[in-house]
Amino acid sequence: MICMVKSEQRLPCAFPMNMETVEYIDKPNCLFGGEQCKKYWITKREIFDHESKSGYYRIFFCKKHCVGFTSPYPSQQTVHYLYCAQTSKDFEIIKDSFIDKIKDCMVKKLINNLLITQKRRQEIRLLDYGTGNGRYALIASHCPNVMSYAVDFQAEPPVLLSKNMNNNLRYFSQNEFSADKTTYNIIILRHVIEHLHNPLSTLSDLRQKLSSGGIIYIEVPNFRSASGFVFGNMWPLHYVPRHIWHFTKESLIELTRQAKLDASVHNIEMPLMGSAFALVLRARTYNLFWQIIGILLHPMQLLLGICSNQPTCLFVIARDLNSSRGES
To answer: For FRET with 82, which of 12, 123, 192, 222 sits at 20 to 30 Å CA-CA?
Structure first.
């Protein structure tokens, strides 16, 4: 079944189309087994789209492959209409506030930890795939000996990058990136693959763009997170219909294995208590008040994750299983 929902706003992007609607496909499919494992499916949740108010969406869960999937989901041909306006939280505007400075520090820490894995190189090529607002790519461009690349589907870079473009920073649209032959020492996929229609194909393609000894950093929401269990249908990281897939530790490992990547799963937290309580209490806007609430309640979120071993998010640092290719 296919249903059509009008997009709230359209701006020019890298995939111009004559349609005025987002197409939703009501045909659930397991990421690994398709419809062949249908007997293992359960309907886990029915979630309202709190961001664009487009209606309710079901999240199915395959008990065999431990992966969730949204239905209906936006078609691959029209999904960009959900993002072209750059008004979703994937393109959060950076305002140089106290909260943004904290986020910048967290980003710098992560990037520095990734750079350590390539410390013997004179120049490090870092790719931020699905850059969103561009925060990671921009901060990486200011690190010593780093050439930073950012990719997203828009033809033009996000505002943060266009205003701060420098000699160590380059932006690709998805079309430009597909044609480019650059290889990378570090590829960051932070909260990206849950949005993709075919994450296995994307990971396999990116593996081919790794330099010898290079790494791919993947971070996703944890569908089994303890905080998500507490907040249920009001948990922000369900994020339907934009999140097509909902990963667990088991399914994330299976995805990297099928992409011929060597990886192990680790726990990581994303401060989300402020967002969650704003949804529960039906706040009209998410502002500084809710951000402060999130900071104050973050220790409770950490405690839930530690006691259950089910944090809000998961990450892997993956390497090519066939890393015998020569240095590029």
So the answer is: 222
